[in-house]
Structure formats: structure tokens, C-alpha cells
Design brief:
Shape: elongated
Structural class: alpha/beta
Number of strands: 9
Bound molecules: S-adenosylmethionine
CATH architecture: 3-Layer(aba) Sandwich
Helix content: 25-40%
CATH class: Alpha Beta
Distance between the termini: 52 Å
Strand content: 25-35%
CATH topology: Rossmann fold
Radius of gyration: 24 Å
CATH superfamily: Vaccinia Virus protein VP39
Amino acid sequence: MKPKPRKLSSAMLAKRKKTDVSESRLNAIKKMAKPRKKRVIVHLGNVGSGKTKVGTIKINHFPAQKTFAYAKKFPNFKFIGIDALHLGLYMQIKPKNMNQIKAGFKGGLGKLKDNSVDLISSEMALGYYGSKFKGVNKSQKGNYREYTKKVTERAYKKLKSGGKLLIALDSDIIASVFDSLVSVGFKPENIKAKLMTKKESQRTYWLENYKKEHQGIIFYQLSAVK
Ligand SMILES: C[S@@+](CC[C@H](N)C(=O)[O-])C[C@H]1O[C@@H](n2cnc3c(N)ncnc32)[C@H](O)[C@@H]1O
């Protein structure tokens, strides 16, 4: 049953006025009710190729597919892709809340403000490549360990306190990437490794292909909070 609205006497009304929300409380409430600040999300090595489906047709090479999809799903967040490869014509159809920086991981991160990023994510990118980008199929060539450490160091600088670095990688390189994370300041207790499910480890063209080429490989999602 609906409660009947109470009739207030003038004395009660006067009392209610007195106990009305104070100015400062009102301001505090307004502040809390304000929409949260835009989250800034960076995708390292996002161009590569992602797979998608248009109707029943499978497309294996859709550049920056993940960044496109997330930027559309979260229009209030800002997405920044960093990749040595160019997005090409896709630059013209990218969502408005997505920027693409054509640069190396380290140089691209260098363009961002310190302590400004909420999340930096990488799949089959950070940990595999050296400073001289030699092509997507030339991973683990050159100074890739040293470069990974330099990129992680910069990523740490760019993350806000409480910000997260999320890295999808395989069992062969997880230990060296973990060491890099610790050496640049991430606390070991803030680093977690999660085994990817079968479905997760098939979500991109690269994960699927790498598995075919490296028998027995296991994929992990490594997360490190600043
Ligand atoms: C194997 S692909 C992975 C692409 C995507 N993340 C995925 O899982 O489908 C690696 C990506 O990293 C980029 N990349 C590799 N080394 C790089 C570097 N040093 N600086 C910038 N981008 C790099 C490549 O251009 C490519 O887009």
C-alpha cells in the first residue's frame, strides 16, 4: 500500500527549512554526483591485425579491431593506440574518442603526460619486440628484453597511482617480463598472473597463430597495479 503524503504544519515546515541541506553539504553532494573523469586507456601494438565477423564472413585482418570495438562500447573513455604501423584509411573511420599514435612503444608513451593513464594494455606486443621494429612477424629479435624494460619503465611513469598495466603474453617470456615490472617499481604483491581460458587464448588472430606455431605454449594475462 502506498503511504499517504504527510501534511506538514507551518511549525514543522519552519523546522524542515532549518535542517535543509547546508551549502557545503550540497556542494559535496554535487561533487559526488559529477560524472567521473574520463578514463584514459592506452593500447600498445594495437594495429597488428584483429579478427572480426561481418555477418557470416570472417575477417582475419582488421587493423586495431580491439581499440575500435572498445572505443565504441565506452564512448566516455579516451582510447589511445600506439603502434609502429599506420592505421591507413581506417584513420578516417575511427571513433572520435580514439587517437592513434604512429610510433614505437617507448616514443609513443613519451608523448603522454606522466600520471595520466588509467590502463595500458598489450596483447602479443610488449615483451616480444625490440626498439627497431622489423615487422610484425619478427618478434624476439634484437634488444627485445632491454627494450621491454625501457617501455615498462615509461609505462609506470605514465600510469596514475592505482593505474594498471595488462599484458597478454606466453609462458616463454612471462618470467622476464615479470622481472622487468619489478625492476621499474611495480611491487611483486601488486602483480598477478592469470591463465587464459581456451576461449580467451583464441580471441585474436595472433594468439591463435602463435599457438599453432609454438606447440605447448600457454597464454597468461599479467596485470600490474601501480
Ligand atoms: C603480433 S602483433 C599483435 C597485434 C594485436 N595486439 C593482437 O593481439 O592482435 C604486434 C603489434 O605490435 C606492433 N609493434 C611491434 N613492435 C613495436 C614497437 N617496437 N613499437 C610499436 N609497435 C610495435 C606491431 O606493429 C603490431 O601491430
